[in-house]
Amino acid sequence: MKLYLFFLGVLSITCSLNAQNSEKNNTETVKKIEVPEILTKVNLLDHVEVGAYTLTFTAVESDGRCPKQVTCVWPGEANIVIEIHDGIDAEQHRISIPALGFHREILSTESHKVYLKNIEPYPIKPDDKLEAYKLMLKIEPQNP
């Protein structure tokens, strides 16, 4: 009889601990892992090939973004020119990039989508003479 009561007590404690662990697991939040964005940098006058297309960063027409060390009413924008060549014809596109960047689709092929994210470097002082511009592109494979 004592052995029976002993096993009953152990079973009771085991069930109690399992219930506590179950409640603890239900109250914990699940943290999702964010996959980092992989960006392709294209230097001024350089190009990147996406399938049969060639995308060339041809010019920065103006850079009116508000420098970091200045207080502005408007954050400004940079105006750029990119050329997209499909192997036969080339088209020039003038695009205004907001100071904080954006996520704008600029090319869609059967196998990829290309998004324009931003332009670097960002001006720090009003008299900065920026020259080594780079376009930040996200090239994403299309699902079949």
Write the SSE topology:
Elements: H1 2-27, E1 40-43, E2 47-50, E3 53-63, E4 77-85, E5 90-98, E6 104-108, E7 112-120, E8 134-141
Antiparallel strand pairs: 1-8, 2-3, 3-4, 4-5, 6-7, 7-8
Describe the structure.
- With about 140 residues, this protein is α+β, with helices and mostly antiparallel strands.
- The protein has a single domain (about 40-140), classed as Tick-borne Encephalitis virus Glycoprotein, domain 1, CATH 2.60.98.
- Helix content is about 20%, strand content about 40%.
- It is built from one helix and eight strands.
- It has one helix at about 1-25; strands at about 40-45, 45-50, 55-65, 75-85, 90-100, 105-110, 110-120, 135-140.
- The strands form two sheets. A four-stranded antiparallel beta sheet has the order 1-8-7-6, with no helix packed on it. A four-stranded antiparallel beta sheet has the order 2-3-4-5, with no helix packed on it.
- A hairpin with a 2-residue loop joins β2 and β3 (about 55-65).
- The radius of gyration is 28 Å and the shape is flat.
- It starts with a helix and ends with a strand.
- The model has no long low-confidence stretch (mean pLDDT about 80).
The percent of residues in helical segments reads 10-25%
Give the structural class: alpha+beta
Q: Give the CA-CA distance, first to last residue.
A: 69 Å
The portion of residues forming beta strands comes to 35-45%
Q: What coarse outline follows from CA principal-axis ratios? A: flat
Radius of gyration from CA coordinates = 28 Å
Oligomer: single chain
The beta-strand count equals 8
